[in-house]
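[audit] Reproducing an earlier prediction to check determinism. Same input, same settings, fresh worker. If the tokens differ from the archived copy the diff job will pick it up downstream; this log only records the rerun itself.
[audit] input (331 residues):
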Amino acid sequence: MTDEQRWLKGFRDSFYTPSGFTLLEVIVASAVLVLIISLLLGVISQTSSITRSAAQKIAAFQGARAAFDLMARHVSQATLNAYWDYDQLPSPTRYLRKSELHFLIGKAGVPPFPGTPGSGHAIFFQAPGGVTAAPATYGGLETLLNAMGYFVEYRAQESLPTPFPPEAPIYRYRLMQAIQPTEDLSVYGSTTGDSWIAGMAGTASPVADNVICLIVWPRRSPEDDPTGLALSSNFSYDSRLNVSANPQAETANQLPPTVQLTIVAIDEASAARFCVSPTPPDNLANTLAGLFENADAYTADLTTLENRLSEERITFRTFSVTVPIRESKME
């Protein structure tokens, strides 16, 4: 190498001095990178857990929401087809409201109402549901009159028919729907009493699982009832009660202007923890005990129920709506 070449190499090396990281620098950089990745993984895991939990809760209560909307729609269509007629023949003395149909609200599990005692209330009425025992002939008549009812019952899941193998029963609180086809309407058998309800409980089917309570509150319309007073002190309502009194009872053969419907549903994980035997579990039965017997205490009772469920670490959702009865003529 000549002197000129050595000079050029020295000049070039002065501008392109090779450099690198020491072992300590590499270790520190790696530790920082691992820490950042760990923090990111923790955030991603927490976000995924929250998203998954929210999705599970939404899915758990979708069935209850759909059944609640169905019940509210049917209640809003309740009818009595009331009319004015003489009180008696052949010697009439006055006109009375009359109807062959019936609107009833009462405590679940207390005759004549089906359901599990302590699960709130039951409601039975007639509405144009279009359900017929001969769908091939009358299936297109959507305004056919049906008797309907809703209540909560603790019961086993219905088994699959043959040839499916039998399975261990799964016990749950369930919102039940009873519908009597037009051809089988028994409400016309008598214009008094409630015997027509008796045959409906056996044909009821579940429309939502894990609904532990149904509260049905007959009320006046907000315009007529600014103070929120109910039509009865204990949530009950019977359109056939005191129909011959003089003067005739305000509710006789009349529909309430509005009905406030409330259901309380729990998630499947909570239900699976407690609902393991043929009898209602004490944990859930105790949360419902002594509630919704006095209409004036509705708000306080609902708060008590929600607090009790929270103390049991039960995930729940409350749905409530005030349903106007379209055909109500009560002032």
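[audit] rerun output stored. Observation attached for the diff report: The first strand starts at residue 83 and ends at 86.
[audit] end
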